Amino acid sequence: xxxxxxxxxxxxxxxxxxxxxxxxxxxxxxxxxxxxxxxxxxxxxxxxxxxxxxxxxxxxxxxxxxxxxxxxxxxxxxxxxxxxxxxxxxxxxxxxxxxxxxxxxxxxxxxxxxxxxxxxxxxxxxxxxxxxxxxxxxxxxxxxxxxxxxxxxxxxxxxxxxxxxxxxxxxxxxxxxxxxxxxxxxxxxxxxxxxxxxxxxxxxxxxxxxxxxxxxxxxxxxxxxxxxxxxxxxxxxxxxxxxxxxxxxxxxxxxxxxxxxxxxxxxxxxxxxxxxxxxxxxxxxxxxxxxxxxxxxxxxxxxxxxxxxxxxxxxxxxxxxxxxxxxxxxxxxxxxxxxxxxxxxxxxxxxxxxxxxxxxxxxxxxxxxxxxxxxxxxxxxxxxxxxxxxxxxxxxxxxxxxxxxxxxxxxxxxxxxx
Length: 418
Ligand code: PMP
Ligand code: GLN
Hints:
Elements: H1 9-15, H2 24-29, H3 45-56, E1 59-60, H4 72-83, H5 96-110, E2 120-124, H6 125-137, E3 143-148, H7 152-160, E4 164-171, E5 176-177, H8 179-185, E6 190-196, H9 208-220, E7 224-228, E8 253-258, H10 259-263, E9 270-274, H11 277-290, H12 296-306, H13 310-333, E10 337-339, E11 346-350, H14 359-370, E12 372-373, E13 375-376, H15 383-388, E14 392-396, H16 401-411, H17 414-417
Parallel strand pairs: 1-12, 3-4, 3-6, 6-7, 7-8
Antiparallel strand pairs: 2-9, 4-5, 8-9, 10-11, 11-14, 13-14
Helix pairs in contact: 3-14, 4-12, 5-12, 6-7, 6-11, 13-16
């Protein structure tokens, strides 16, 4: 991996894996300041690639955000809430209508019945839910287990909490864990298993067999399961199973989700978590001192969104599935090896068939070469995992059909420009 001050600064801030240059959270964990040796503040890979996409006028298939707003009735509900004066602090737990709607959603889709008063907490996006949960549950020296590749904020918060980040690999082509390797990654120090299902960046949706193994191991090692399910409604032909619905899981599981993904309002930053009262109370204690509360009118609007009929939910999945197929076809035609995802709005490709071994280098050059931005998968890994995923690149397909078609056309010219 590159070191700070080299020509690939985004590596430093995204994985923190370079031996010579600790990432921002690693410096935070040791009490050092957050400035990198060359005086730059670290930015995430998403910000880095979005900035590059903007400065080159590229189609941004890097950072995962839709290029169309969500349902008009949700927007109207936010405008009404603002107009009617819902503009001061929300209660720390979240506005009652949203907590009720979250509990009802868990009942409608999964047969779960969280108590809206004590087992539901509204957060500033899933990002805050992850941060507050880990800060509440882990102590320096504890181990937190995640799959690898892992979403970037996991590594950051685990580092800030002074805990040890242990990983179990997800390998192409299906990105399922080897259950023996998973078992080996547990230890008596495993405090939290941080699961992401459906999984960013690989697009894997984990079946009951894998989830049951995690529950067994978490029970054996008395670990808490934190399950980030922000893409719960974005699956293609496979059912999403919340791990908390498995026997023995509920008492030790916190489930996290976000309105950003389901309703295409990523900028509103409305997220939530559900779980047993004592765990939710611990997270709430931390959350009070992170943001206390946020987004009062947006919270009311998302309550409306959660009440939309089933057709809305099946509709977003089938629309996205078509988009996946359009981009997958374009990527195949461009010469990449394509791993079709079962969920999320990300598709991973292998750059090796094009003779490119290093996806990090390609991601940096792709906007200049063909006017498309993507995210290299090694940045979601520690050094060993980065080596394993060296030629993988992630594209987001939550974009208008015509934008995906245009991107496919541009990518088709890549072979001739390398
Ligand atoms: N978890 C995962 C797996 C994500 O992909 C994302 C962001 N897209 C988040 C959490 C953060 O969600 P939010 O924008 O609601 O903070
Ligand atoms: N979760 C989005 C992604 O994976 C990005 C969110 C962010 O920019 N932090 O692309």
